[in-house]
Specification:
three-stranded antiparallel β-sheet; single chain; 2 domains; alpha+beta
């Protein structure tokens, strides 16, 4: 990690964000209290889960949107709008 990356992850930790380190198998592991060994470990701020809204139209048409407001605006322009689904990625 370069110094800018170190500062970024330390600042995020100070601000209460979840920190992860890379395990030897390549998986990212959550660390509530990181050891901060920047020579041996790679750290990152835990990515936010993907969130989107999906408008369903007719029998099999759909569109995705980054915000609920955007989904609502487009839904109101379509007479065949069936429903809007809010989807959030699950971290297992």
């Amino acid at each position: 990690m370069n110094i800018d990356s170190m500062i970024e992850v330390l600042t995020a930790y100070k601000n209460g964000e979840q920190i992860q380190s890379k395990h030897c198998d390549g998986q990212w592991i959550n660390h509530p209290k990181p050891a901060w060994d920047f020579y041996e470990c790679e750290y990152r701020v835990k990515p936010k889960p993907l969130e989107m809204w999906v408008n369903l139209y007719g029998e099999s048409n759909w569109s995705t949107f980054k915000t609920q407001r955007e989904a609502e605006i487009i839904a109101n322009q379509h007479s065949d709008h069936k429903r809007t689904i809010h989807m959030v990625e699950v971290d297992e």
